[in-house]
């Protein structure tokens, strides 16, 4: 399965570690200290997000 993730450039080195999701509680669908990487099966995004993000992977 091919998955996609759009990330800000300053987080590119750690984007696939799940570290950011583990540090927060209540903002997404995981609990605090649960390492998780959110991805999508589609590259489709709302237009306002695209200028502030950069694609990760091939």
What does this structure look like?
The structure is a single chain. This protein is 9% helix and 7% strand. With 58 residues, the protein is low in regular secondary structure. The chain has one domain (1-52). A two-stranded antiparallel ribbon has the order 1-2. The radius of gyration is 12 Å and the shape is globular. The model has no long low-confidence stretch (mean pLDDT 76).
Strand and helix layout:
Elements lengths: L5 E2 L11 H5 L30 E2 L3
What is the approximate shape? globular
Query: How many extended strands?
Result: 2
- Arithmetic mean of pLDDT: 76
End-to-end separation in angstroms reads 13 Å
Class inferred from helices and paired strands: little secondary structure
H-E string: EHE
- Poorly predicted regions: none
Overall structural domain count:
1
Q: Specify the biggest β-sheet.
A: 2 strands, antiparallel
The largest sheet has its strands arranged as 1-2
How much of the polypeptide forms β-strand, as a percent range? 5-15%
Integer-rounded radius of gyration:
12 Å
SS field, number of helical segments: 1
Proportion of helical residues: under 10%
């Amino acid at each position: 399965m091919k998955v996609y993730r759009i990330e800000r450039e300053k987080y590119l080195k750690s984007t696939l570690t799940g570290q950011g999701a583990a540090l927060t509680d209540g903002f997404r669908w995981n609990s605090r200290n649960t390492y998780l990487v959110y991805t999508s099966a589609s590259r489709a995004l709302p237009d306002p997000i695209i200028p502030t993000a950069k694609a990760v992977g091939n």
